[in-house]
Amino acid sequence: MSDISSGSLHTESKLPKGAWLVVALLFFIGALNYLDRIMITTMRSSIIEAMPMSDAQFGLLTSVFLWTYGMLSPFAGFLADKFKRSRIVLLSLLVWSTVTWMTAYSKTFEQLLVTRILMGISEACYIPAALALISDYHRSSTRSLATGIHMTGVMVGSSLGFLGGMLAENHTWNFVFTFFGFVGILYSLVVALILRDAPKENVQTVVEKSENNVNFFEGIRDLFKKKAFLCMLGYWGLLGIVGWLVMGWLPTYYKEHFSLSQGIAGLYATGYLYPAQIVGLLLGGFLADRWTRTNRFARIHVPAIGLLIAAPCVFLASYTSILPLAIFAFMIYAVTRAFGDSNMMPMLCMVVDPRYRATGYGVLNFFSTIIGGIALYAGGVLRDSNVDLSRMYQFAALTMLVCAALLFMAKPKSTPEGK
User: Fold this and answer.
1) Does residue 209 lie within any of the structural domains?
2) What value does the mean pLDDT of the chain take?
3) Is 410 left (phi over 0), alpha (psi -120 to 50) or beta?
4) What domain range is 388 assigned to?
5) 139 in the Ramachandran plot: left (φ > 0), alpha (ψ -120 to 50) or beta?
6) CA–CA dist 377, 244 (Å, integer)
7) Which of 98, 114, 169, 173 has the highest count of CB atoms within 10 angstroms of its CB?
8) Which pLDDT tens digit goes with each residue over 174-199?
9) Judgement on whether residues 274 and 413 belong to the same structural domain of the protein
């Protein structure tokens, strides 16, 4: 399509009523989404004491969640394209909160495993629907920043995972699931009263969803016919490898490379990186929104440039023996790597048919989750083979350069979003 005219820019600056309220509502849902899924890992001792199981069984609780979540993501995204996105968000929140509450009544490992599978099914429906809903409300002038703010909520939820362990120590692990399940159910009542789909005039679709003109297999075929989408698929999948390698093994790297205690290593790995990622989410969204006024590929170029900065930082951190320098390098990585999270859905809006935005994100989520999980396991295999973590981080740095190259290749010939 042609470049944006000054008239269309003026039109885009007028957001529909409630556009930022939607972001605020989804911010807290995103925080609950990640808090509910991750807090089980911080209650390991309390759960095993009450319900004896092997370490392999406890690890399976997280693995089965990821497998279910990843495999169902494409179909979950399609549901958000076929039906009202706000209703899918609400249903996902209500179901996973109910499952969280039900988890407190598990008496055996098998029952706990079933609740993790149900959690994976219900939570898979949230992110594609939420990001597509934000894209419907926010056009070119605010889309990346709005997405970044929402993903900040996700980051806050992840960083609050420690609450599970603390509350379990002072009460019981059952209390934690009961409490947060109840919070989610109550919040779903608020969401039901306020959250709505964007006005139809603000959503650029070829046909209205109510006419049932969306088809899962047609959408998948349409996605995989686009070179730009395939480049983004490769980028997001490889970036999943980087994310799992860097974050998953960073506490161990700090502990071994700098001879730190487990507690201090964990603090450096999470206490510094999570705030840096939040800064990156907001900065990446802001920069992309500003630059897109003069460069229609800004939402693609900002994450690519971020990776070109992040890669040498990780490479430097893998070599240095100076702890403050390593911490600083990993913080810069966290900031610039997060540019991609602010812009992934906005990038998709430039490439895919508007009818299949959520489906497209679901496919990306599937590849990222599955490949990332394999990478985390492969890292363990390499560690068992006495491969130094420095080498793994150098591999991650090179992988980020490949990701940047794929993004620079992902230039859509036209822009389905219209801008």
Assistant:
1) no
2) 85
3) beta
4) 223-419
5) beta
6) 10
7) 173
8) 899 999 999 999 999 999 999 999 88
9) yes
